[in-house]
Design goal:
The chain has 2 helices and 6 strands; from the N terminus they run ααββββββ. The protein is α+β, with helices and mostly antiparallel strands. The chain has a 6-stranded antiparallel β-sheet with strand order 1-6-2-3-4-5, with no helix packed on it. It is rod-shaped.
């Protein structure tokens, strides 16, 4: 994202424009010029594509891939059940008993058809990340 201006850079740029035009004694024309200059700079800043991404994946058509070959399980993912509730669980591939979902914390098991959708978990926050 280096091609986009950071909040701090934008604030610094506005401060430099403010001090540049504060030196003029004619506040009205200085203010108008500063605003016009700021708009010129802002219009030149690239924008990010922030269109929302639907990350829900149909669990019946496309279950998560196996990541642990020994236990034949997926990684932990966010699931959406047919009752509208979400949980963190992983998918278990079981040729003998049938496939199912189970949670990490209390080993609650959900039938394969009880889960309608899933999506990868977001990355955990980095140390000191408060936003």
């Amino acid at each position: 994202m280096a091609e986009y201006i950071s909040r701090e850079e934008a604030i610094d740029k506005m401060r430099s424009l403010k001090s540049k035009f504060r030196a003029k004694n004619d506040w009205d024309s200085g203010y108008d010029t500063a605003i016009a200059e700021a708009f010129k700079h802002i219009k030149g800043v690239p924008v990010a594509d922030v269109e929302p991404i639907d990350r829900w994946i149909d669990a019946q058509k496309n279950p998560p891939p196996v990541v642990d070959r020994r236990s034949m399980t997926s990684e932990s993912v966010l699931i959406l059940r047919d009752n509208g509730r979400c949980a963190v669980a992983y998918y278990c591939y079981d040729a003998e008993d049938g496939n199912y979902w189970t949670t990490d914390d209390d080993n609650t098991m959900y039938a394969w058809e009880e889960v309608t959708h899933w999506q990868p978990l977001p990355e955990p926050p980095k140390d000191g990340d408060t936003e």
